[in-house]
Model the fold of this input.
Amino acid sequence: MAEQSLTRNIMKKGVVGVVVGIILVIAARATHFPEVFQIMFFLYAMLGALVFILLDAPSMPRLEGAKAAIGLIIFYVILSGAYIGGASILPQYDPEDEKGKIDKVLRMRRAMSEQGKAEELIARAKELNDRAASIEKQLQALGGGATVVVEEPVGSSSGAAAGDLVALGKEQWELQECYNCHKLFGQGGKKRGPILDNIGNLMTPEALREKILDPKSWMAEGFDKQYKKGKMPDKYKDLMFPQEIDALVAFLATLKDTSVDTPKPIKMN
Done:
């Protein structure tokens, strides 16, 4: 009879744990929590159900002396194994990823320093020297004996000034973690800010720049509460270099997906 009661108790509270876990997952998904948090919430619900099952479980025979010590060790081995095994399923912190992100954030700052300018000149000189040596080898192979003068191609540069401006802007989107508040390409966002897939059709580059530098200058339709609470921080004018803001504006100006309902911007001041 006791075994049947314990079985019913396990099934009943196990079902309750699953239901609570599903509710938490649905709520987390509706509020745009990442998938890893949805999994964690479900596991927490099941862990709570397990605790309540154990509270109603029949008492174990009393252990004393060496048996008690062995029992305690076995308990902690099982508990630690379950914890480590469960944690290993979840995404792990990668220092190399964080170092890479810090390097990207500091790239332009290094380039604008005296040391960064010197490093840029050294890199460009090495590149030109390598190209000259390569051309001289080709001439020697053809029997020529001319002196090679290599001019730097127009528009070549390095550091944060190089590459596609829009690509650099997308990089700033990631580095400044704009996805924490805004949803884009179906990813990110906690509903603190509007979806931006079609913002390029609704705001000019000048308006986008104004919004970044002065968040109170524009408000998204339907986001009155977030606007009043100042959900968009007033820090980017101090945090970002003008070139970084230019790149971010260039990226945002390309977002013209009319199939996505981006809220209408309203000029406030």
User: Anything to note?
Assistant: Residues 152-163 have pLDDT under 50 and may be disordered. Residues 163-267 form a domain with the Cytochrome Bc1 Complex; Chain D, domain 2 fold (CATH 1.10.760.10).
